[in-house]
Amino acid sequence: MPLTPLRARRKHHGWTKIQLDARLRRAAKARNETLPQPESLARQIARWENGHGSVSPLYQQLFCDVYGCSPAELGFIEDPEAVEPEPAEGLAAELARASSVDAEVVNLLQAQTDSIRRLDARQGAQLIRDQMRAHIAHIEELTRHAVRPGIRRMLAKVLADTSALAGWQALDVGTPRESWEHFERAKSAAREAEDPSLLAFATAEQAYVLLDMGDARQAGELVQYAHHESSGAVPRLMETWLAAARAEMATALGDADATRTDLDQAADLLPSEPDAALPYLVLSDTHLARWRGNCLARLGDEDALEELNKGLEAVTGTYARAEAGVRIDLASALLVHGERDLANEHLRTAQILVGRTGSLRQKRRIEGLAARTH
């Protein structure tokens, strides 16, 4: 196999992967960026050096810093001198398509995202992933070629919302790398849209990728960062959601006191009415009860059953994935009380629902709990 430019450059310097890791971390620190754990980064570097997958913009910058090379020299872009000039017709057509976008078109794109969101809630992500990818590609192309700042910001807002939804869907079906990239796009679009709520939301949701990979510490730090950066700039409903997310991270770290403090804060912050400015956040008393029940069940708290039964009433027969999640949490809580038969009943129903939604995250939880019921 021929050496890729990236691998050839490391061999030229005579660096081991550990030495490269250290240099990348110094370069990241200079840019106020944080890199994943060494094992995770080593796997990523190996993929890139073997020519598998595209290198994200952040890492392109870091590699250029470390090696003192241009993007073209490292194979990230084609050498400008080697590229034949292309006709302007293609760009003109793309600019023309984007120029036809107005507020009504943006609203239609947002409506399509909302429709996918409702389908996802009821049937899961597996059947609509291709539709979602095509939708994102369409919005992304329009955003890249929109000239008018106002329209561009509106498109960026839809792109941020859509990408965050896609990130959660990808995580649910077991593709964390794809999920991470969706959240990266969501954060970038939220910054262009100048929307602190979407930026906080995408940042905190990205923490769940780390949590699913077993890195609860960094996941908690990322949610805390989202909360700190958005403080005073987001509506109460977003503050509520962030407090509940902090509680879940504290639960994963086994910090029962912090969990209860954050859950209580979420309950105090929860507005009495939905916030029309945050259509991607569906959070009410019953939804918060499900969240609270999930955390308390993981801590083995006896109050979990009451909260979860309250949450189950709100989603039974309507939201397949949410119902499966509550039933899995109920099974976990019931096992703490030694009620195996009822726990098994909830797990059987959850398994049927997961078969419909294709949620790999929930399937793994069911398998783990099923082993405890025998």
Automatic annotation (TrEMBL):
Annotated signal peptide: none
InterPro entries: Cro/C1-type_HTH (IPR001387), TPR-like_helical_dom_sf (IPR011990)
Chain ranges of the HTH cro/C1-type domain: 44-74
PROSITE patterns xref list: HTH_CROC1
Protein name according to UniProt: XRE family transcriptional regulator
Organism: Actinoallomurus acaciae
